[in-house]
Each structure stands twice: as C-alpha cells, then as structure tokens.
Amino acid sequence: xxxxxxxIGQHLSNAIADxxxxxxxxxxxxxxxxIFASLANYxxxxxxxxxxxxxxxxxxxxxxxxxxxxxREQLLTGTAQEAQYISxxxxxxxxxxxxxPFDVMLLGIGTDGHFASLFPDMIDDEQAFGLNAxxxxxxxxxxxxxxxxxxxxxxAMILQSRAIFILAIDxxxxxxxxxxxxxxxxxxxxxxxxxxxxxxVTHTQLITDLNL
Length: 212
Hints:
This protein is α/β, with parallel strands linked by helices. 30% of the residues lie in helices and 20% in strands. It has eight helices and nine strands. Strands 4-2-1-5-8-9 form a six-stranded parallel sheet. The chain has a three-stranded antiparallel sheet with strand order 3-7-6. A hairpin with a 4-residue loop joins strand 6 and strand 7. Helix 7 packs across helix 8. The chain is globular, with a radius of gyration of 16 Å. It starts with 6 loop residues before the first helix and ends in a 5-residue tail after the last strand.
C-alpha cells in the first residue's frame, strides 16, 4: 500500500466530507513512524481532525518513553500541527468524550502479540478483553518494554472504530499475525491480537508493506 495514496489521509478526508470532522487514534512506538512522516504534510483540513493515542506509558510528556512526546515530535509537524491533539495520559476524560465511532484506529503489535497496552497476561481480564465490556480507558501495572505502568483503551473501546489498521511490517510480527490467525481459527485466543482478528464487530485491515 503506497503512502503517496495515503490510506489514512483518505479515510480522514472522507470523514470530514461526510460529517465535518474526523478522528485518528494511533499507537506509538517505531512502527508508525514512516506513516507519521508522510501523513504530517498530507493535504487536508487538519483543523477538523482530532488525534489521540490508543495507549501510553504513564511517564511525563517530556520522558523519552512517552508516546505523547513521540506524537508531538513526529506527527504534529507540518500541516498536521493544526490538528486538535488530546493527550490520553493527561486528559483521559476528554479522550473518552470524543465522538464514536472513531474514524481511523492505527495499531501496532508486539512480538508477544500485544496491541495497545493489552498484554498476554491480561487475556482473562474481562474489563480489558471482553467484547461486551463497557468501552473505557483502563490503567495497568508495570508492563512491556520499556517497563512502565500504562494507560490504554480496552478492546471494547478500540472496536468502536470505523476502520482498524494493524501494522505488521516486520517479518517477526507477520509471523505473530500468522500464528494468531491460526489460533483464532481453532478457537485459541491466548495471543492478544487473535481477539482482533476473530471479532466481527468492525473491519480490520492488516498492513504488511508500506511500499515506501
């Protein structure tokens, strides 16, 4: 999928045309950086776009491990700096109040199959993974690498999206997706991302090649 015909930009443009505003919920980390670089100067009315994070580490906004900092430095540049950015860590109530469904949800995955800050040891947590759970923002203990306490949308809130894009550019993460798909088909949902692949609430699309 070529970024010159930017799939996220097109979705946002269509949403603005349809209803006058658009929302983008994104992951942090290294996976979306090429997307941020190309999206930052995409030609649309960014003043009508709300941007937030699906999860963050609970560290100050200036901390090197902060996804908040990553978004401000890597995405909110160029024309995209006109967007309304709402910090998940600083103002979760404002994020929870955003109109839903979200227009675009961009998710990365870890080599353990986690997405957002929903990790394998949380699989049995109905609040985190239940399809019928109340859509909400949850806090976790110290998890992941780098190891920090985290804040995250739960699966029920994530699924309140018109389109979910799952980034798996790295071959190791593509193997995780393949394993999760096999597990999902057999009914085994021990890998977190298998819950995304199996659900039928909303559309998901796997992105394995950005064709930069």
